Amino acid sequence: MSILKYSGLRALGAASVAAIVLAACGSIVVRACGSGSSNDALPLIRANLSIKAVSQGGVCDIVPVRITPKELRGEANKYANNRMMVTDVTMTGPTDEAGAPMCNGSAPTLPLAPGDWEFSAPLASGTATCVRDIQAAGDLEIRLIDGVAGCGGPEAAADPLALPAEGEVPADGSAPAAAPATG
Hints:
- By secondary structure, the protein is α+β, with helices and mostly antiparallel strands.
- Among the domains are: 7-33, no CATH class; 48-145, Sandwich (Immunoglobulin-like).
- The chain contains 2 helices and 8 strands.
- It has a 4-stranded mixed beta sheet with strand order 4-5-1-8, with no helix packed on it. It has a 4-stranded antiparallel beta sheet with strand order 3-2-6-7, with no helix packed on it.
- A hairpin with a 2-residue loop joins strand 4 (91-97) and strand 5.
- The longest helix has 21 residues, at 7-27.
- It is globular and about 65 Å long.
- It starts with 6 loop residues before the first helix and ends in a 38-residue tail after the last strand.
Protein backbone atom coordinates (compact mmCIF):
# COMPACT_ATOMS: atom_id res chain seq x y z
CA MET A 1 0.00 0.00 0.00
CA SER A 2 1.51 3.28 -1.15
CA ILE A 3 1.65 6.34 1.09
CA LEU A 4 0.88 8.56 -1.93
CA LYS A 5 -2.47 6.81 -2.44
CA TYR A 6 -4.41 9.75 -1.06
CA SER A 7 -4.73 12.92 -3.19
CA GLY A 8 -3.80 15.20 -0.29
CA LEU A 9 -0.51 13.40 0.21
CA ARG A 10 0.13 13.49 -3.56
CA ALA A 11 -0.31 17.26 -3.56
CA LEU A 12 2.03 17.58 -0.56
CA GLY A 13 4.63 15.45 -2.36
CA ALA A 14 4.36 17.55 -5.54
CA ALA A 15 4.70 20.75 -3.52
CA SER A 16 7.82 19.38 -1.80
CA VAL A 17 9.43 18.52 -5.14
CA ALA A 18 8.58 21.99 -6.51
CA ALA A 19 10.09 23.66 -3.43
CA ILE A 20 13.33 21.70 -3.84
CA VAL A 21 13.59 22.65 -7.54
CA LEU A 22 12.96 26.33 -6.76
CA ALA A 23 15.55 26.29 -3.98
CA ALA A 24 18.11 24.80 -6.36
CA CYS A 25 17.33 27.40 -9.04
CA GLY A 26 17.66 30.20 -6.51
CA SER A 27 21.13 29.26 -5.32
CA ILE A 28 23.50 27.03 -7.26
CA VAL A 29 22.20 26.64 -10.78
CA VAL A 30 20.93 30.15 -11.54
CA ARG A 31 22.10 30.10 -15.16
CA ALA A 32 20.66 26.63 -15.77
CA CYS A 33 17.21 27.75 -14.61
CA GLY A 34 17.21 30.83 -16.86
CA SER A 35 16.73 33.56 -14.26
CA GLY A 36 20.07 35.32 -14.85
CA SER A 37 20.81 37.92 -17.52
CA SER A 38 23.94 39.67 -18.70
CA ASN A 39 22.40 43.14 -18.25
CA ASP A 40 21.01 42.72 -14.72
CA ALA A 41 23.96 44.71 -13.36
CA LEU A 42 23.14 47.78 -15.49
CA PRO A 43 21.51 50.62 -13.51
CA LEU A 44 17.79 51.30 -13.48
CA ILE A 45 17.47 54.91 -14.68
CA ARG A 46 14.56 56.89 -13.23
CA ALA A 47 13.96 60.53 -14.07
CA ASN A 48 12.38 62.85 -11.50
CA LEU A 49 9.42 64.83 -12.83
CA SER A 50 8.73 68.23 -11.27
CA ILE A 51 5.78 70.35 -12.42
CA LYS A 52 4.75 73.92 -11.61
CA ALA A 53 1.41 74.90 -13.14
CA VAL A 54 -1.10 77.73 -12.77
CA SER A 55 -4.16 76.63 -10.80
CA GLN A 56 -7.39 76.34 -12.76
CA GLY A 57 -10.20 77.81 -10.65
CA GLY A 58 -8.31 77.27 -7.40
CA VAL A 59 -8.03 73.52 -7.97
CA CYS A 60 -4.86 71.47 -8.45
CA ASP A 61 -5.55 68.37 -10.52
CA ILE A 62 -3.34 65.40 -11.35
CA VAL A 63 -1.17 66.15 -14.40
CA PRO A 64 -0.51 63.20 -16.75
CA VAL A 65 3.01 63.35 -18.22
CA ARG A 66 3.42 61.40 -21.46
CA ILE A 67 6.92 59.92 -21.81
CA THR A 68 7.84 58.77 -25.32
CA PRO A 69 11.13 57.26 -26.53
CA LYS A 70 12.60 59.16 -29.50
CA GLU A 71 15.98 57.44 -30.00
CA LEU A 72 17.21 54.72 -27.66
CA ARG A 73 20.98 54.16 -27.44
CA GLY A 74 23.19 51.66 -25.68
CA GLU A 75 22.32 48.69 -23.54
CA ALA A 76 19.62 48.85 -20.87
CA ASN A 77 18.73 46.85 -17.79
CA LYS A 78 16.16 44.20 -18.68
CA TYR A 79 13.60 45.97 -16.45
CA ALA A 80 13.99 49.35 -18.21
CA ASN A 81 11.04 50.58 -20.27
CA ASN A 82 11.48 51.28 -23.97
CA ARG A 83 7.89 52.21 -24.90
CA MET A 84 5.57 55.16 -24.46
CA MET A 85 4.13 55.48 -20.95
CA VAL A 86 2.22 57.98 -18.81
CA THR A 87 3.18 59.02 -15.28
CA ASP A 88 0.54 60.83 -13.23
CA VAL A 89 1.94 63.68 -11.12
CA THR A 90 -0.21 64.56 -8.11
CA MET A 91 -0.32 68.33 -7.65
CA THR A 92 -0.61 70.18 -4.33
CA GLY A 93 -1.69 73.71 -3.56
CA PRO A 94 -2.57 76.18 -4.82
CA THR A 95 0.01 78.46 -3.25
CA ASP A 96 0.35 82.19 -3.87
CA GLU A 97 3.56 82.76 -5.84
CA ALA A 98 4.04 86.39 -6.88
CA GLY A 99 0.29 86.89 -6.95
CA ALA A 100 -0.47 83.81 -9.06
CA PRO A 101 -2.13 80.66 -7.68
CA MET A 102 0.39 77.89 -8.48
CA CYS A 103 0.18 74.11 -8.14
CA ASN A 104 3.32 72.05 -7.54
CA GLY A 105 3.98 68.34 -7.86
CA SER A 106 6.70 65.78 -8.38
CA ALA A 107 6.97 62.06 -9.13
CA PRO A 108 9.59 59.56 -10.30
CA THR A 109 9.24 57.84 -13.66
CA LEU A 110 9.32 54.13 -14.20
CA PRO A 111 12.82 52.89 -15.17
CA LEU A 112 13.85 54.24 -18.60
CA ALA A 113 16.20 52.82 -21.21
CA PRO A 114 19.08 55.19 -22.08
CA GLY A 115 18.53 57.59 -24.99
CA ASP A 116 16.40 60.57 -26.02
CA TRP A 117 12.95 60.72 -24.42
CA GLU A 118 10.17 63.26 -24.99
CA PHE A 119 8.28 64.54 -21.94
CA SER A 120 4.89 66.16 -22.58
CA ALA A 121 2.28 67.51 -20.13
CA PRO A 122 -0.94 69.53 -20.58
CA LEU A 123 -0.59 72.74 -18.56
CA ALA A 124 -2.79 75.86 -18.35
CA SER A 125 -0.72 77.77 -20.95
CA GLY A 126 -0.66 74.82 -23.37
CA THR A 127 1.21 71.57 -23.74
CA ALA A 128 4.73 71.70 -22.29
CA THR A 129 7.08 69.47 -24.29
CA CYS A 130 10.80 68.79 -24.26
CA VAL A 131 13.28 66.10 -25.31
CA ARG A 132 15.98 65.03 -22.87
CA ASP A 133 18.96 62.66 -23.24
CA ILE A 134 18.46 60.19 -20.39
CA GLN A 135 21.70 58.55 -19.19
CA ALA A 136 22.64 57.01 -15.83
CA ALA A 137 25.30 59.68 -15.22
CA GLY A 138 23.24 62.54 -16.73
CA ASP A 139 20.79 65.15 -15.47
CA LEU A 140 17.61 63.27 -14.52
CA GLU A 141 15.62 66.28 -13.22
CA ILE A 142 12.75 67.07 -15.62
CA ARG A 143 11.12 70.41 -14.72
CA LEU A 144 8.01 71.43 -16.63
CA ILE A 145 6.93 74.96 -15.72
CA ASP A 146 3.74 76.57 -17.01
CA GLY A 147 4.61 79.14 -19.68
CA VAL A 148 8.34 78.23 -19.84
CA ALA A 149 9.81 76.32 -22.79
CA GLY A 150 11.98 73.26 -22.20
CA CYS A 151 12.40 71.03 -19.20
CA GLY A 152 14.87 72.94 -17.07
CA GLY A 153 18.12 71.31 -18.15
CA PRO A 154 20.24 70.47 -21.16
CA GLU A 155 18.09 69.52 -24.12
CA ALA A 156 18.98 66.54 -26.29
CA ALA A 157 21.49 67.36 -29.03
CA ALA A 158 19.97 68.68 -32.25
CA ASP A 159 20.22 66.54 -35.37
CA PRO A 160 23.46 67.68 -37.08
CA LEU A 161 22.03 66.84 -40.52
CA ALA A 162 18.90 68.94 -40.04
CA LEU A 163 18.73 72.13 -42.09
CA PRO A 164 18.56 75.39 -40.13
CA ALA A 165 15.22 77.15 -40.03
CA GLU A 166 14.69 80.03 -42.45
CA GLY A 167 16.83 83.01 -41.37
CA GLU A 168 18.63 80.97 -38.68
CA VAL A 169 22.44 81.11 -38.64
CA PRO A 170 24.02 77.64 -39.10
CA ALA A 171 26.14 76.25 -36.25
CA ASP A 172 29.36 76.70 -38.26
CA GLY A 173 28.79 80.49 -38.38
CA SER A 174 28.41 80.72 -42.16
CA ALA A 175 25.71 82.83 -43.76
CA PRO A 176 22.24 81.28 -43.94
CA ALA A 177 21.55 79.42 -47.15
CA ALA A 178 19.38 81.30 -49.61
CA ALA A 179 16.02 79.80 -50.37
CA PRO A 180 15.96 77.96 -53.70
CA ALA A 181 14.47 80.00 -56.52
CA THR A 182 11.08 78.89 -57.73
CA GLY A 183 9.63 79.89 -60.92
